[in-house]
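pinning this so it doesn't scroll away 📌
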Amino acid sequence: MPEGKRGPAATCPGSTAAHVAANVRRLREQQGLSTYQLARAMQAASRPIPQSGVSRIEAGHRRVDVDDLVAFAVVFGVSPAALLLPLNDASTNDVDITGAGTVPADIAWAWASNERPLAMGDADPRVVIAEYRLRSLPPGQWHRAALPEPTSGAAPHESTGETP
């Protein structure tokens, strides 16, 4: 590819970008902010985005980079995950995750909350979850990666990791 040209993946927003756009609008409206007020709050957070930029983000016409995403999370007082996923965690609701495809919303939220990986595989689910947490946490938080205790004698369900 010639230098200076970008491929479709670099310029076309994916499903996660759509979730971010919808969540920026949702959180802005929930907090009673105008696009001008949100732009001023982003300026105060040292991540200036003009009012027109906020409007373009909400319309899905402007990409949000990771620094913008984190600044929005700080301004709104939420976790970055609250911007990345739809605000519905029902197991009957599917969420499209960029790079992973469609997964049940409860699994997507458990993944984003560092509770479990998106896919469990065939290994012991307790080991898979513990290894996921070890890879996802800094050493000072590894105590949170301890093997979860089974809740009954039943084997955990492959897709959810929960016991029936």
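📌 and the second one:
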Amino acid sequence: MIESIYVGMTGLSSFSRGLRVIANNTTNLNTPGFKGSSLRFADAFYSGGSYSGRQFSQLGYGVSTTGTMLSFKPGELRQTGNSMDLAINGQGLFTLQGADGKITYTRAGQFQFNSEGILVNQGTGEKVMGVGSNGALTEITINDLKTNAGKTTTAVKFTGNLSSTGTEQTVNNVRVIDGAGGEHLLALKFTNTNATTAGSWQVDLMDGTTVVGTKQLIFQNGRPTVATEKLSFTYTPAGQAAVPLTLDFSTDVTSFASGTLSTLAFSSQDGAAPADLSSAAFDASGTLVLTYANGQTAKGPRLSLGRFDTPDAVGALGDNQFEVLDGSAWHTGVAGGNFGSVRSGYIEISNVDLSQEFSDLVIMQRGYQASSQVISTANEMLQELFSMKSR
């Protein structure tokens, strides 16, 4: 009977551990990237002997626990609106590096750029690692990417109708960006030379009253000819290097009779003035994409991701981080394939199933009650035995 009490105690101890695991799961219901765990039970060894290879007198010693098993089933992805909140739609984990150089992994992609321009894990400060051009791990920084130098204009596009019955037309405010990022407003003067060549116009590129260059634009059946639909000029701003310019009339430019009214106008140009960084995000491939106030974009490093073959190779460290227990079962790479895709502006919430936890809670409670009842019954039987002496 005393042994029965010890057996019952193993049940109390094991089910208490089970309750603690459930408590930890439920209290982390709203923890981003949290992975729930379950307690593994095992029966204790048996005593007894054997005869002719057959066991006899097998008596159990109760129940024991053999550890917990992490569940890496994916949690729901919820939109946050913060471009530095990242989630992985797949098996991958983000790679972090602590101040001591230790590599850890997480599914909770709550990141930010610190005061030094380095992407770090919020709260704990570990660096979020990317993959450098040589394939090695590298920090992700925007230190050299906070300003865009801009782009010199090389092509200018126009749209509208240049009246074939008109004699002269000037298009003003032709915007051009030079190599130093300066903006210049040029003008195009069109002079009808139909008397010399059918459908032809003299095109003068003007910088104020100065003629930069002169070309000929010819229309056939109301459309620019292939030979003249793109006109090349060289513009040299004061104190700046020469800027090769291509004036593009190949799209949406016509020349039909419309009296003296022409709608030909400047449409767009491919240059950009210098500008500061306006936003940063990661695309599905895990590549950092930077957007500047001038509309230009630039790309940074790709995120380094890790994945594993078996949960037994993963250990929980707290702070939503995991460590490698068996390096042979781990793989590193970038988004795509088995690593999954990156979702910017989303966060993965806990994978805890509350209904399952409550069901397990009832089972643990009943197991604990049953174990305590075994102890109570064994105690009553001992009391009955001790009372026999006084009878």
